[in-house]
Task: structure prediction
Amino acid sequence: MNITLKIWRQANPEDAGAMHEYQVHNVSEDSSFLEMLDILNEELFEAGEEPIAFDSDCREGICGQCGVVINGVAHGPEVTTTCQLHMRSFNDGDTITIEPWRATAFPIIQDLVVDRSALDRIIQAGGYISVNTGAAPDAHATPVPKQNADRAFEAAACIGCGACVAACPNASAMLFTSAKVTHLNMLPQGQPENLMRVKNMLNQHDAEGFGTCTNIGECAAVCPKQIPLDVISTLNRQLGKAVLKGV
Ligand code: SF4
Ligand code: FES
Result:
């Protein structure tokens, strides 16, 4: 496949940035999207040009490090992570635009790399438990209703990639925050600080500059782990309880 790429280049956080055009030739349809960028970077390196900066780590859809906006869609045309997207999702002769996540709370560091430490600070505000959970036999001896275990597991699948923020017109991180709250608040071990967790994580969410959720649903549509939109309702119910109890 021969592909034209239009890629956002920005040397540093202060640089204005602009789209630059590149050609890549003889790309296998079995290449991953990031391997295609690796090929382009090798060519840029050999030509003495600055390679394109982008994030990745596991390249297996697990770590949440990768993530770019491809043709206007966070993670591109498939519901998966950017690293698990393959060139067979495109056609020979296509022009593909590649941009970084765009949100006030995700400042651009260079090219396609953004600073997502705001998500880490939301976790630090309440995404933990204070009880001693003991060893594996103790965990096995703690009964958890099946529907709660399933709900917690579903929410725990969030890999913190930030696509939900990039897709949301309000740049809200409510899908991420709700997933992190839900996976702990559904389990017995998460109960001691459950309402404080909701309040503290939401306060940090707002302090980081993420926007308000207005139920548009773009977040869940692009989420590579298919976190359901109704985790936000779960969080809102618990926020209501926290307000009623004066937490
Ligand atoms: S909720 Fe989905 S899109 Fe948002 S950070 Fe988690 S895995 Fe990524
Ligand atoms: S590089 Fe780890 S999820 Fe994509």
